[in-house]
Design goal:
Length: about 140
Amino acid sequence: MKAVIHEIQRFANIVPLSVFHATMKDTELMGYSIPKGTMVIQNMRTVLMEEGQWKFPHEFNPENFLNDKGEFVKPEAFMPFSTGPRVCLGEGLARMELFLTMVTLLRKFKFIWPEDAGEPDFTPIFGITLTPKPYRMKIQLRSNQ
Ligand code: HEM
């Protein structure tokens, strides 16, 4: 379950440009000089889908978070909440909510892609956040409930 949730966050890249920042002083980074006051915009995709960091960088596959023994591992490049001193303050709460909501829904219901719906279109709607296009889904109460 943890691997699935992490993979959803990786693949969906919900906050694609994080929050904009600015340098507070003249800064040297990997040979580049960035003057004081320069706006810095992160591109989260560059780490969340970086080749060499993931077993399957461009496809949805929870094995990106599993080792050879099937145990959960979190690669360093997983940073949908950003990183550093301004990392998302709500990360702990968001992770708890994602786990509780997903487990509750999946224990109670089956989510079935309708046969006549064709292939899912993963192209996101781009804004401050990336959101999915509207889609239809069949939701069935599990028989053991
Ligand atoms: C899946 C859900 C969430 C994602 C992917 C997410 C992602 C992010 C990202 C990428 C940033 C920018 C960090 C940076 O400036 O480098 C951020 C900042 C922030 N987030 Fe979230 N967030 C989520 C949920 C939440 C929730 C539930 C809360 C509050 C209850 C929250 C509160 C904040 C705050 C206060 C900041 C600003 C932190 C600062 O500038 O010091 N976030 N978030």
